[in-house]
Design goal:
Organism: Hibiscus trionum
Oligomer: single chain
Distance between the termini: 41 Å
Largest sheet: 2 strands, antiparallel
InterPro entries: SirB1_N (IPR032698)
Helix content: 40-55%
Number of helices: 15
Radius of gyration: 23 Å
Protein name: Protein SirB1 N-terminal domain-containing protein
Order of helices and strands: EEHHHHHHEHEHEEHHHEEHHHH
Structural class: mainly alpha
Domain Protein SirB1 N-terminal: 127-207
């Protein structure tokens, strides 16, 4: 750690900052979290004048969003700490952003959007459960684990995947959403690869802070379906391991994109991008991209639009507009891919929020045109850009023919109808 860095302790059970005590394996440490705060200047935070639509629209529909707004504010306070270096830092390194807390803020917002409960998700209680996993390993630890570094890391994996019974869920949709939220994974022991990677890295970071881990470790993030995240000694890493190293930026993106994919309200035709699915539903009565839609595809698109027109915004296999919008808004705040503004725009279009939809579609086009990267020219990208132009034309026509007065009221915007949160 450089001399410019300082250490602060964020306790669960203590109100004042405390130093880390020396510990022995038979004497587990108290439960509090430590973060390293760099003294170097941070880059400007993401823009806060984007005026996202979700919370305001829900409020106008009579839904209390006070807990959701607090959770979003806390999420933003975490990602404001992301510097360029921080974004590319491995999740195994203890730095400014508390990834466990950030993941729980994501869960807390979504829970408040779909739950009828007047109480917020107890973030601190679940953080304590996360730290209890690390403390539990201290009682499981014995000197034989230190016979080699490989044995030590293997003992942590056995503790997590055998003794504690965590296993990887294959869920990719709303049928099993608990695998995508940290608090549910801690409760049910079943989680996505990214959630298991987060939990594994949190244990490693705490063991390092308590002095049990004294060498550099990486998490091998599996890209195959059955694989489990596993720890390995960084000094023995190979070049082929690089694509499997999860950075802070990648982890946050993966969490949010998993949610976006699971709750996207247009679940038909999985071969297409999410944007094209929504664009299909927006123009399903016409010729699309120069050819007639197949009967099955047209029927699926019409059915999706019919559900939205009736206010059925959520249901197993039909997505959830509220959580899809919240994932899009948080991805935009991460300022990673301008396509997130495009995807957000098409969802706003389906909500009848035409003025906001046009605003974000223009922001997407402006950001894309100023990007130094070469545009992609594959077939899907060409179809997407064609759909963007058609959506832009449609929104311009709405503005000319109706103005924004009629469209300023949300059309059947999702409240708590047909809610199936977990």
């Amino acid at each position: 750690m450089s001399s410019a860095a300082s250490v602060f302790v964020a306790p669960f059970k203590f109100s004042r900052f405390r130093s880390i005590p020396s510990i022995t394996p038979s004497s587990p440490p108290p439960c509090y979290r430590v973060l390293c705060c760099s003294g170097s200047p941070q880059p400007p935070p993401p823009s806060t004048d984007l005026r996202f639509a979700l919370h305001d629209a829900l409020e106008s529909s009579g839904v209390d969003t006070s807990h959701a707004r607090i959770a979003r504010k806390c999420f933003v306070s975490q990602i404001h700490k992301l510097s360029v270096i921080e974004r590319e830092t491995s999740i195994c390194i203890n730095r400014c952003v508390d990834l466990g807390r950030t993941a729980l803020y994501i869960a807390a917002e979504d829970a408040s959007l779909v739950s009828h409960s007047s109480d917020p998700l107890p973030v601190d209680a679940f953080l304590e459960s996360l730290d209890d996993l690390s403390m539990g390993y201290c009682s499981h630890y014995n000197s034989s684990c230190r016979s080699s570094r490989e044995n030590f890391l293997e003992s942590i994996e056995k503790y997590l995947y055998v003794k504690k019974g965590f296993w990887r869920s294959m869920a990719k949709n709303q049928a099993e959403p608990q695998a995508l939220y940290l608090h549910s994974v801690l409760t049910h022991r079943s989680g996505s690869a990214v959630m298991l990677s987060l939990i594994h890295s949190e244990i490693l970071k705490m063991l390092r802070l308590w002095g049990l881990l004294d060498f550099d470790v990486e998490i091998f993030f599996p890209h195959d379906l059955p694989g489990l995240p596993r720890a390995y000694e960084k000094q023995k890493s190979k070049e082929s391991d690089q694509p499997h190293i999860m950075t802070v930026q990648m982890l946050l993106e993966e969490i949010l994109r998993n949610l976006k994919n699971a709750f996207w309200p247009f679940q038909h035709d999985r071969a297409d991008s999410l944007f094209l699915r929504a664009a299909d539903a927006a123009s399903c009565a016409n010729k699309f991209n120069g050819f007639e839609e197949s009967g099955h595809r047209l029927a699926s698109a019409k059915a999706a639009q019919h559900r939205l027109d009736r206010g059925v915004w959520t249901g197993v296999r039909f997505g959830d507009m509220r959580r899809a919008l919240s994932a899009c808004e948080r991805l935009i705040l991460l300022t990673t891919d301008p396509k997130e503004m495009r995807d957000y725009s098409v969802l706003l279009y389906h909500c009848g929020l035409y003025e906001q939809a046009l605003k974000y579609l223009r922001l997407y086009q402006d950001t894309k045109s100023s990007s130094p990267q070469n545009p992609l020219t594959d077939s899907i990208s060409n179809l997407e850009e064609d759909a963007v132009e058609k959506l832009m034309v449609r929104l311009d026509l709405i503005a000319m023919e109706e103005g924004w007065t009629r469209s300023s009221c949300v059309r059947n915007f999702p409240g708590n109808n047909n809610s199936e949160p977990w």
